[in-house]
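Case study.
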Amino acid sequence: MGYVLNRLIQGLTVIAAMAGLVFVGVYAIGNPVDMLISPEADQAEIDATIARLGLDKPLLEQFLNFVSGVLHGDFGTSFIYNEPAVRLILDRFPATLELAVSAVLIAILVGIPLGVIAGLIPDKPAGRSIMAVSILGFSLPTFWVGMMLIMIFSVWLGWLPSTGRGETVELFGIPVSFLTASGLKHLLLPAINLALFKTSLVIRLARAGTREVVGQDYIKFARAKGLPESRVILVHLLKNMMIPVVTVLGLEFGSVVAFAVVTETVFAWPGMGRLLISSIVQLDRPVIVAYLMLTVLLFVIVNFVVDLLYALLDPRVRRKGA
Amino acid sequence: MQHGLIATTALVTGLLVAAPASAADLKIGLAAEPSALDPHYHNLIPNNSMFTHLFDSLVEQDANQHLIPGLASSWKAIDPLTWEFKLRKDAAFHDGTPFTAKDAVFSLCRVPKVPNSPSAFTIYMKAVAAVETPDDHTLILKTATPYPMLPTDMSTLGILPAKSGKVAGPIVFKKTGCEGIEAYPSTEDINAGKVPGTGPFVFKEFVKGDRIVFTRNPNFWGAKSAWDTVTFKPIPADGPRVAALLAGDVDFIENPPSQDLPKLRKDAKLRVVDGLSNRTIYVALDSADAPTPGIKLPKNPLHDARVRKALSLAIDRKAIRAKIMGGQSEPAGQIISTGLYGYNPALKPDSFDPKGAKKLLAEAGYPNGFEIVLGSPNDRYMNDEKIAQAIAQYWTRAGVKTRVDATTKSVFFSRRGKREFSAYLAGWGAGTGEASSPLKSLVACRKPEIGYGTTNYTNYCNPKLDATLTEALATIDDKKREGLLQQALAEAQSDTGIVPIHYEKTPWAMKKSLTYTPRVDQYTVAMEVKPAK
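After joint prediction, the assembly is written out as follows.
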């Protein structure tokens, strides 16, 4: 119990510290009024806008207002859209989530088989070329790869659309696009683009895991017992090498959701990342702050859950923490 | 004879009906997404160009920003303080309700009542002191002082139906808040398509961040659109927007990046259209008689008009046009674009004269020049930072050692507001399409309380200019006012109060099968996209 409480206090401290940092940081970028108001407006109009947005108050007071708002579940209202910042973000959350889930699925379905192959035959040309390709996946910038995908599959071959999200249908009240043909076509390129880096990561993890597990006694014993190779790989090997892959992917998922910004920009995907970019450009402070705070919250929660799971699995952690 | 006529009519009608049977759809890639469809919410180019599809104004602006009849078929000043607008009798809202003077008054009443508007339209209602409606199709607007800009101001305000609010009894216009209106439609209602307009298109869908869809208004009072359905897709990133056009995912894009234009022009499947815009790119110089932050001298050399003139002469505007802008600009000698109302044909761009510049600097007591920092945004105007770099080199060559301080627009505009720059590059779009807009904001003495010099961050103040401008703004006679505006523009250049660089040319790229009438106000509107003949 002490351990849980300890972790919880740590998490809350991180959130509080981030709130201060984020607020002051966003405050320092510039004055939103200079971006918002028509340059022809007279002083009365400018003063009215400043007062309405609460920008005439000192920084500390603005921050305290923000904190008390957050404690009441209100992250502020967008300067640009006049809608609650959280609602603006959550409205676009399904699009980003869909993209992120698709990307992670691609990473798993492509990355694990390739990684296992590379791990089983590390010295053969096939194994080497898989590793070479995975290096490309790590090192090529997402923006450039995205543009190349568009040039090849949309402009030259004309197979897939280059921009936007396709038709959506409601699934449990949430608009999703992967259930329509047009939606699926629109989803493919951005999902591949976003999956590229993660796929390379999975290949490397799967390869390392495979190489480690392959040398274990129980694999040797299984082979000696005369089990067919497919069973050795699919049951004994896969089960054991998956643990680190799942752990890392779980943690990485948060970052895929929060930082799909580049892919969303290239493919004009109507997700949260693009909202963040346009809010930064237009100095829509409440949206920037709310987005960053939600991201912090997401990571703190994920970490908290992971910590709890570790403690459940390993009593030593529990004792150390308390 | 009678029969023949009917038969012909039937045939023609049949053809007309048959023609659009194959649905004509248009997909437009936008560089910036509007924040709302509400015509009174956010005074910004993406919003203003978008709402004109749905909502008309009493007065409209044509592609050259000349005033043309909108929901008012004619208007005139009965006396210097009274304007009469005759309203159309054949206009109706998308739900069939006929348009009347009541709707106009209702809309004017709403303008200052939009909650949380980031950039309100109130400035365009400031002059209106009283509103009267002698009959359903006449609107009388009264001003407190003679105000010739009233029709222009009316061209910025979209008209909503009175039915969309809660109207109890007759509406009485009051400057402090109209009587007889209990509630106005909210911005959200308009974004959701719940409020019909009278415009050429009808709302179908607005998915924020993804698309805006309109369909043709078959009962539109004016020229009907060639398109059954128009879809706007925001694609803010330049490269992907061009790629979407190349891939055929959109038919038409605004603002193709200038470095891609030569390639797009060569493409046989595409067409590039460009036209002069109302945007002047200029350099503003701090002319205060006091030390200035960007120059480390006890005295501000820019206070001397000869130094300002020298800095203007040192710039090769033609080279900037050819080398940096790829021809997408026109050298400027004043702060209003060629051909717009008030443009003074006698003011020519300063020609490149490095020797003359050095001579003037020597005369002013700076034979060895001085050091200066030139501020600039790097993501606001076409090639803004590159232009600033070029100007810095020209100035350095003339002896004024220049360093460019270019930042993203949000940072630049904030720093400019805090007066951190002695010299900065910026742009001004004359929203009204005539010369009083830049004169009033950029070079008039800073008196923000009356809306003068609101973007004058350089302490420039020329009382003669202000007097001429003030007189112009109170002169109803169009001819006389134009003369006064021309005089004020000449006044601003007489002591180089501002250094005009060029007018931007706005490009649009589209499929070969389309054409576009370039708009001076840089608006992208589906009404002007037409099938090529």
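Observations recorded in class. The beta strands of chain A are 169-171, 174-176. Chain A touches chain B through 54 residues (CB under 8 Å). We will return to this complex in the next lecture.
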